Amino acid sequence: MNFIEALKLKSKLLFIFIIVTIGLVIIGVMGAINLNSMKKNLDSLYFGSLVPVIELNKILQSYRGNLANTLYKAKNSEITPDEVKLQIKFSVKTIEKEWKNYEYHFKRYEEFPYVEYTAAEIKTTNEYFLNILKGIEDGYNVKDLSMSNVEKKITHIYSVVSKLIDYEIDIAQYERKNFLNLYNSILLKVGAVLIIVIFGVMIISYYVFKSIKNDQTTLEITTKKLKIANKKLENASYTDSLTGLYNRRYFNLVYDREIRRAKRTHSYITFIMLDIDYFKQYNDTYGHLEGDKALKSVAKVLKDALNRPSDFIFRLGGEEFGILLSETSESDSVMIAGNICDLVRESKIEHKGSKANKFLTISIGVACCIADEALDEEVLISRADEMLYSAKESGRDRYDITTNVSTATPQIVEEESA
Fold it and tell me: Is the Cα dihedral 157, 158, 163, 167 positive or negative?
């Protein structure tokens, strides 16, 4: 199967499609040929035997049911001579028509002698009844007709035609037996070919799909490695390496998107700015390595407190963090801000240089509103910045919130007092 292994994926699929198609075409051609043969046998069975039997039975019915009954009724004066003449003409004409139809059908060589004999007997019998008709037309009284002679004639022709019917029925049974034998033979042939084709297709399909599976496995492994590499690149691009939070670059991307979404749905949008109180003094007292640990600790508090998919946490720079919340009301925003302040304080990270508390604390500014087309994205950030400044001016280790985002007056906090 080196040939199959060398094929490309598309070529393999095309190859198996061609194999299946060829197999189906072979089955279709064989089926069409054999069905055509079956059709001929059906034609021979039904139109060569069944229809002739119906025609011969119509002839018997005309003799026994029409001619004999008509003459019996005439003898008993149940019908008029004119009705007798019409019935005789009609019956003889029907018999001649049905016999012509019967003779038109296919006949075997061994049938000809008896068919010719029957034809002569029918002709003689018809002439007998036509002579009765002529006598009636010449004034002969039907009551004087000998019904025993009529009965002999009808019994004789009935016997002759009945033998022909029995022969046709025997032929039909014979044809049916041959048809069933041929039908079973065709079923065996088609079944055998079908099994061979299916078995062949299954073997080829197994090797083709095995090869495809190997290719797919290789492709999946490569794709998985590529996804992991892309994820790492994406994380490196949008994630702060120290805290694991989203960075400023990702903030610029997400902020515009979430603002537009809130405007479309006229829903709440909340932006929170926070930074660590007296963080410069913390670095001066404990060193930058401990300062990095403090940043990581605050980042962990933020991650634990905010875990909805729509909550975005960013490290904007230095000790400054940003939080963007969607569909969060003013009361919920207040609760979240207060909870974050408490959790950072409860971490009990010692901070001897802080004037707000003996432990590390944060100050928070919150801007919350229902977004509409009039909302200015820059004003929302500025108002959060104002509230952060207000919280610091009010003693730090706390939060301030506003819902007024129509105007903003940016404030600058001296780095030394941060």
Answer: positive
Structure tokens at 220: 């999946």
Rg (CA), the chain: 54
Place of tokens 């089926």: 31
| pLDDT tens per residue across span 208-257 | 777 777 777 887 888 888 887 777 666 667 899 899 999 999 999 999 99
CA atoms within 13 A on the CB side of 320: 15
What is the pairing mode between strands 268-276 and 399-402? unpaired
Each residue's pLDDT tens digit, 181-195: 877 787 788 778 778
Nearest to 362 by CA among 408, 411, 294: 294
Which residue matches tokens 């004119």? 82
> Rounded distance, CA 298 to CA 344, Å?
6
Long-range CB pairs of 85-93 (<8 Å, 24+ gap) are: 85/133, 85/136, 85/137, 88/129, 88/130, 88/132, 88/133, 88/136, 89/133, 90/66, 91/62, 91/63, 91/66, 91/67, 91/129, 92/67, 92/126, 92/129, 92/130, 92/133
Token pair listed for 45: 């069975």
pTM of the model: 0.48
Active-site residues, by number, are 319
Q: What is the pLDDT of residue 415?
A: 44
Distance CA 215, CA 9 (A): 8
